[in-house]
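Much of what follows relies on a compact textual record of a protein's fold. With that in mind, consider the following protein and its fold in token form.
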Amino acid sequence: MHYIYDVLANFNEIFFDFYDWNDSDHFIHIKKLPILRVDSNFFNCVKFFDVLVDKDLVDKIYRRTDFFSVSKNKYSYVCCICDGREAIILNLDSKGYVVGRSSMLIDEENEVIDICECMSVSNFQVVINNRIIPSFFKTRHESNMDKFFLSELNRLGYDELYYLYYDCFDESENDVVKIKERIFNEIESLYPKINDFLGLISINK
């Protein structure tokens, strides 16, 4: 087993690049972290999807990671995977579900990539459940904006949704499912209108 030493992790359900980290995040200082080289297909599935990895990987990394400040009992299935071009840190549960993903600082990621040059690829199976939402093409700020507006839209009643839809698209729609579907699909371009609408109805309440 190959390792990298003295690295920083910031686990989130959704993958965020290190430049999207916040000062208020819960950072974990890792003393010793096992590295696995995987193929790019496995790497991308684990990075961007809700997945279950096979038991061989789970058993291979069990309690192999040492920490400076947290107990192994809390993080028993942590490892770094690399496809030769990128590297991320994973936190799994005992069944093999990926419950946390962390990007790496540039110098630490480059060190892992260098180490992987002399490693052979390990072949692991993966089962994809659902796509991680929001889209991985968005920054953390954009993802949080999506979450906020989607949460607020789900609080609206039928009349409010009807008028919002008309305000956004200048046409009527009576089907609530279709109203939500179109607004959700075009939400980024509708941020200003939705924000103004939410502000208006909050004043009138």
Notes: DSSP finds seven helices and eight strands in the chain. The two ends are 61 Å apart (CA to CA).
